[in-house]
Specification:
This protein is mainly α. 75% of the residues lie in helices and 0% in strands. The chain is elongated, with a radius of gyration of 25 Å. The N and C termini lie far apart (85 Å).
Amino acid sequence: MNEQRGHEVVEHLQAAALELIAAARAMLDVAEELVKDPAEVLEMAAGLAAAAAEVQRRAQGAPAASPKVERIRVS
């Protein structure tokens, strides 16, 4: 391996390390926000739970749940 290729490898590794550090900082910023305001996390979790429940209902062949629709029989 020549010297130039060795330098390229080091440059790529340095760039990758810096990207990992930036990603870790971003993750820590999000974690800090979640600790400071857990209501947002609870709201997001509730939304995900509702979506998962809807997916499960549809997978079991049940019609989509829609609390705003009232079915009225007409005879």
